TrEMBL record:
This is PQQ-binding-like beta-propeller repeat protein. It comes from Mesorhizobium montanum.
Length: 215
C-alpha cells in the first residue's frame, strides 16, 4: 500500500452563514457543498459563493451531469440545480447513518460512516446493488478514472483512501494534517480532490497523486 502526506493546494472559507461543510460535489465548473440548510455553489477560481439552494443537506452531495443528489437525514433528494426544486426522493440505505455520496456508472455510491461500508444503489429506487466493506469510518466518496476513493475521519486523524472496488482492500492513502478532517469528497476529474472540512466550515483542494496533466 502506498502512503503519502496529502498536499493541500488551497483552502476556501469559512463562509458567512455556513457553519459546516457536509457533502461536496463538482459540476465541471462549480464546487457544490452542503452546509445543513443549503447547498451552495462555490467558484473555485474566485472562492466566492455564486448560488445557494435552500434544502436540507446533512451529509453527502453528488452530481450526475444534470442533477444534484443530496442526503437529508434518511432520504436522498434529486434536485434541479437551475430551479432548486426537489424532483424526486429515494430512501438512503443507512436510514440516517449515511455519509458520502458519489455518482458513477449510472449509480449512486453511498458511504455509511459508522457501518464502514460503501453501497452502490439504484438512483431511481434506492435499492442496494452491492456493498463494499471498509476498515475505517467512511466519510466522503468519489470515483475518478475507474478509481474509488473515500475519506475517513476518526478522532484527530483523517485521510483519503483509494480502495479496490471489488475487495475493499486499501491500495493508497493520503494522510491529512492532524486536526484536518474530511467530511465530503469529490474529484474534479483531473488532478484535484475537493474535501469538505466538517465543522471548520472550509473546503480544501488536495492534489490527486499520479495525475499527468499532459494525458
Amino acid at each position: 500500500m502506498k502512503r503519502a502526506a496529502a498536499e493541500i493546494l488551497r483552502e476556501y472559507g469559512p463562509f458567512p452563514g455556513a457553519e459546516r461543510v457536509n457533502g461536496v460535489t463538482y459540476d465541471g465548473k462549480k464546487v457544490w457543498f452542503a452546509d445543513g440548510d443549503k447547498v451552495n455553489a462555490l467558484d473555485p477560481e474566485s472562492g466566492a459563493i455564486v448560488q445557494s439552494i435552500d434544502v436540507a443537506s446533512h451529509a453527502g452531495t453528488a452530481f450526475d451531469g444534470k442533477h444534484l443528489y443530496q442526503i437529508a437525514e434518511d432520504r436522498i433528494h434529486k434536485i434541479d440545480p437551475g430551479t432548486g426544486k426537489v424532483i424526486a426522493t429515494i430512501p438512503a440505505p443507512g436510514n440516517g447513518g449515511d455519509s458520502g455520496l458519489a455518482w458513477a456508472e449510472g449509480s449512486l455510491w453511498v458511504g455509511q460512516h459508522r457501518a464502514r461500508r460503501i453501497h452502490q444503489i439504484d438512483p431511481e429506487t434506492g435499492k442496494i446493488i452491492r456493498t463494499i466493506e471498509s476498515n475505517r469510518v467512511v466519510t466522503g466518496v468519489t470515483w475518478v478514472d475507474g478509481e474509488l476513493w473515500h475519506g475517513t475521519w476518526e478522532g484527530d486523524e483523517s485521510d483519503l483512501r483509494r480502495v479496490d472496488p471489488r475487495s475493499g482492500e486499501v491500495l493508497q492513502t493520503l494522510e491529512m494534517p492532524a486536526g484536518t478532517g474530511v467530511s465530503g469528497l469529490e474529484s474534479d476529474g483531473k488532478g484535484c480532490f475537493f474535501c469538505g472540512g466538517g465543522g471548520s466550515g472550509k473546503v480544501r483542494a488536495v492534489r490527486r497523486p499520479g495525475y499527468d496533466a499532459g494525458t
